[in-house]
Every structure is written in C-alpha cells, then in structure tokens.
Specification:
single chain; alpha/beta; Alpha-Beta Plaits; TIM Barrel; 2 domains; eight-stranded mixed barrel; five-stranded mixed beta sheet; 16 strands; 22% strand
Length: 427
C-alpha cells in the first residue's frame, strides 16, 4: 500500500470506528530503519520489497482484524483491536513484533537476507482511557521517534506526559535558537588558581544565558536542550567570542608579568563540523588576544576516541596559532591515556568527581589520580583539578602533585567586572 494524501484520513477513520463502538484499540506507529539506506544503495524497487516484507511480517504476527496504513515512505501504522486486558496484551504483541520483524529475505539479492529493524511507538484507548484519535496518533508517533533513538528493533509505550514533555522541549529549543540569534549568551569567568599561594593564574569562561528580563541562567538550565537541538557548536562560538572580548580588559587588570590563562570550552559538535571548525579558527584570527593572555581551548575527552572527527587537523591549526589545548573532565569518558603521547595536549582538567571522592573509604580513584599525575609530569602536561570545595581537598591535591585548581573554595564564576576586581586582589 503506497502512502497517499488520504493516508491520515484513512488512519483516523479506522481509529474512529473502534471509538464509536466503544472497543479498546491500539495504534502502533512503525518506522523501518533501513529503508533509506537500502533505497540509496540498491534502488527504490528493492527498498519497496523490503517494506512489503516488513508489512507482511507485522500483519502475520498481529491479531485478527488488524488494519495497516502506509503513512510515509518508511513508516506505517497498525490499528489493532484489543481485548479487555490491553496492557498485558499490548506488551506481548509489541514484544512479539520486535522479535519477529528483524530480518526479511527478499528476492533479487542472491538469497542474502536484508537487514530489517523496526522502531515502534505504541498508544492505546479503552473505556477508562479515551484520548481523541488525533491525540492517539500524536502519542504513538512521539513514542516511535523515541524508539528510533535506540539501536535495533525497539518499542516505546506512550505515556500521558510524553506529549507535554515534547511540547516543552520544542518550546525550549525554539527559545534557545532565538536567544542565540539575539546574542543573549555571554561568559562568566571562574578563577583558576595556584593551589599553593591562592594566586589567580587565569580564568575559565563558562556559558551564561542572559535572558531578556535580566536573569542569568547557568548551563544546567539549557545545556541538555542545546545538545538535543544540535546547537552546542553555535553556543561555543558565541561564548568564545565573549571570552575574547573580555581578554583585553583582563590583560589590563593583571598585576603580574606572568601571562594570564583564558580557557574556553569547545564541544564535540563543533569539532565534528568542518564549517564550525573553520568558524572557530576565523574567530581566533579576527580577535587575537593581547600578548599577556594565553588562550586555551578545552575539549571533551570522548573526542579523543574518534579519529574521524577532524581533531588532529584542528589541533595542528591551533598549535600554529599558539593556542593551548586541554582535555576537560578527564577520567569520565573515553580511556585516552594512550593518546596523550600522540596529541598536542598541553593540559588536563581533572573531573570534579575525582576531587569529591578524595576522602572516600575506597581509595581507588585516588590511585588513578596519582597515576594521572605521574603521566602528566612525564609528558610535561599541566594538571588542573576542577570542583575544589574544601581546604582538605586543596591540601591533598597539592601534596600529590596537582598545583592548579578551580572551584567554589576559591570563587564561583564571576561577571567580567567582578573577575577584574578579583584579579586585582589575587594576582
């Protein structure tokens, strides 16, 4: 059955028929993952054979009276009549469909089975729970999209909160895009200090959303949504631009001949995008920090594990521009000690989780810290501990060879004016 303009009307009609009879019904929205890859590699005709095999498989293992509507090139919907125990019956049904509709042999491929996995979103209506047919379709499709985010054949049962959460996320992402377009993101500066003497050695520029009504929001209010919307690279560039603008003011305020470090974050999304990497390099070229400022970029540890991200090329470009590179939140992701020998890495930011466990009964994390310190010293890599909150933590870190730190023991992130005042007092 090919998708057409009347597919939605056909689906609504089938759902309404069950509703009018007062009978429980389930809607299962299905997406075949491999359709577009098969179409690209082998042509539309073979991809259609794949869909036909999938349709046959789903109907073969569905209850009698199930109807099917093709709602898109790779999507279809099953309208399934239910008995008096919809929850138990539904769970058994979608599990059976998930298990059976995995591989579909098709003619014309030399007998080789083509991979077929299906993502299913499930919603239902009964006497106690009677959403409208439109709501049922929305819920099932939202659940299907969640299932598509998981590997293999998967299914997700819709919940009453799912639509509300999706609407909230959509609204938040739209607000984030507008805020980025209007330049509402800035940088607050957290001091990086000498653990021995408390002297400010530099600052890390951290993203802050300055809303239209003047509220200052930290990343916990927007970072997850920014990542989900694919906007972290844009956010990185906006915060880096703000940090570079602050560099001149910080340089004028420093009272020591020692260069002042200005460290800023770059996300995996920025590193993986050719266009965004070029934007970053152009930004650095156009806003060269003054001679008294050492620019450092912090990248997440997971990027070290993917050789196809363009990381090596980016590191070479940054080295040519005398930009330092640090690994942020080290110890939480990809096991990258081996790659430290190969990459132009100047610094490691030890994740706060290690610092918080310094006084734990189990000392395994402390042993890992000691190993990291030894490797860092051997390679000439500077170590900075994040999340230092107590005097006891400061002393332990210093005694074990970590000489730099940042955290609430010294200062929270500061606006530029407060950072300048802090620098004047502690440099």
């Amino acid at each position: 059955m090919q998708p057409g303009n009347d597919a939605m009307e056909q689906l609504l009609s089938g759902l309404e028929g069950h509703r009018n009879l007062g009978k429980p019904v389930a809607l299962i929205c299905c997406s075949f993952r491999q359709f577009h890859a098969c179409e690209t590699l082998h042509g539309r005709a073979l991809a259609e054979e794949l869909i036909a095999a999938g349709q046959h498989c789903l109907l073969e293992h569905s209850p009698e009276g199930t109807s099917l509507v093709r709602t898109g090139p790779a999507e279809l919907a099953l309208v399934v009549p239910l008995s008096t125990d919809p929850c138990g019956e539904l769970t058994a049904l979608v599990q059976r469909l998930s298990n059976r509709c995995t591989v579909a042999p098709t003619p014309g491929t030399g007998g080789t089975p083509l991979l077929l996995t299906v993502a299913m979103g499930v919603a239902h209506a009964n006497a106690a729970h009677r959403p409208s047919s439109h709501t049922l379709i929305t819920q099932a499709r939202l659940a299907m999209h969640q299932a598509c985010g998981r590997p293999g054949s998967q299914w997700v049962l819709a919940s009453p909160q799912m639509q509300q959460q999706a609407e909230q996320l959509y609204r938040q992402q739209a607000e984030l895009m507008l805020a980025l377009q209007q330049g509402q993101f800035s940088a607050h500066l957290q001091p990086i200090v000498d653990l021995q003497h408390g002297r400010t050695l530099g600052f890390e520029a951290l993203a802050r959303w300055i809303t239209a009504d003047g509220k200052v929001l930290s990343p916990k209010h927007f970072l997850n949504q920014t990542q989900a919307a694919g906007l972290t690279a844009v956010l990185d560039l906006q915060v880096i631009a703000a940090g570079l603008r602050a560099a001149t003011h910080l340089n004028q305020a420093r009272r020591s001949d020692q260069p002042l470090l200005l460290s800023m974050n770059i996300s995996a999304q920025l590193i993986e995008s050719d266009c965004r990497r070029l934007d970053l390099l152009a930004l650095i070229d156009d806003h060269q920090p003054p001679d008294g400022i050492e620019l450092q970029l912090e990248l997440v540890e997971e990027t070290l594990g993917n050789a196809e991200t363009g990381l090596d090329d980016l590191l070479r470009e940054l080295t040519d521009r005398h930009v330092l590179v640090a690994i942020d939140d080290f110890g939480t992701g990809y096991s990258s000690l081996s790659r430290l020998h190969d990459l132009a890495i100047n610094a490691i930011k030890v994740d706060r989780s290690f610092v918080q466990r310094i006084n734990a009964t189990n000392k395994s994390s402390n042993q890992l810290l000691d190993t990291l310190v030894a490797v860092g010293h051997d390679l000439g890599i500077t170590l900075t501990a994040e999340g230092v909150e107590t005097e006891q933590q400061r002393r332990w870190l210093l005694e074990h060879g970590i000489e730099r730190g940042q955290g609430y023991l010294f200062s929270r992130p500061l606006c530029l004016d407060a950072a300048i005042a802090s620098l004047s007092a502690t440099s």
